[in-house]
């Protein structure tokens, strides 16, 4: 069941989304050669605590997970696509890092992700991240009243496939509101003009997940959470929480 949010609810979700944006900004600022993933998690925790927000990631345990998630961010490095658990691993020059973060405040959730390179970026990594950002922007642009879910999926998939990248199979975006994961699912590839009509008040987490090697398959680490490329190629993940309104898409997790 898809809950259509009121304008007042969307405003409240924007406030939560800005906490997520601030947390990701703090993590990006803290990320440097020699900094551990646990230190990045702590940077996000400090922002959530200061805002009086909680983490929908911490303690989250879906059916596939052997244990509850132990952190407030997912920190996925190099060939890790999503759901990486922060550890004592210290960042190295040239590491490609994807950070996913959420917040819960005032009864509403927000969810967003960024990818970046620590230190000197290889041209191939820079292009992968830039393409992920373009795919996200294309998906957001298609998130308008009168379009269908397939238009968002097609916009994302066209950018990704056009650059020769793989799209993580079985995973995509999702509805978001009172909980982090709600209906409807938001695929990263599809046919235009198909699927659920987009209506004012729908709020979606749109999140392209790109694989540099061009394949779509992934494997799961022994921790039961971290998902990696099967060919060892690098991956990038971007995400925003977006409200569909009569005035156009409103990015609730927009960063300065």
TrEMBL record:
Its cofactor is Co(2+); Zn(2+); Mn(2+); Fe(2+). Residues 12-246 form the Peptidase M24 domain. InterPro entries: Creatinase/aminopeptidase-like, Pept_M24, Pept_M24_MAP, Pept_M24A_MAP1. The keyword DNA repair does not apply. Its EC number is 3.4.11.18. The keyword Metal-binding applies. Binds 2 divalent metal cations per subunit. Has a high-affinity and a low affinity metal-binding site. The true nature of the physiological cofactor is under debate. The enzyme is active with cobalt, zinc, manganese or divalent iron ions. Most likely, methionine aminopeptidases function as mononuclear Fe(2+)-metalloproteases under physiological conditions, and the catalytically relevant metal-binding site has been assigned to the histidine-containing high-affinity site. Substrate binds at residues 83, 181. Pfam families: Peptidase_M24. Keywords: Aminopeptidase, Hydrolase, Metal-binding, Protease. A divalent metal cation 1 binds at residues 100, 111, 239. It catalyses: Release of N-terminal amino acids, preferentially methionine, from peptides and arylamides. A divalent metal cation 2 binds at residues 111, 174, 207, 239. One of its GO terms (molecular function) is initiator methionyl aminopeptidase activity. It is an enzyme of class 3 (hydrolase). HAMAP family: MetAP_1. Removes the N-terminal methionine from nascent proteins. The N-terminal methionine is often cleaved when the second residue in the primary sequence is small and uncharged (Met-Ala-, Cys, Gly, Pro, Ser, Thr, or Val). Requires deformylation of the N(alpha)-formylated initiator methionine before it can be hydrolyzed. Belongs to the peptidase M24A family. Methionine aminopeptidase type 1 subfamily. Monomer. This is Methionine aminopeptidase. The gene is map.
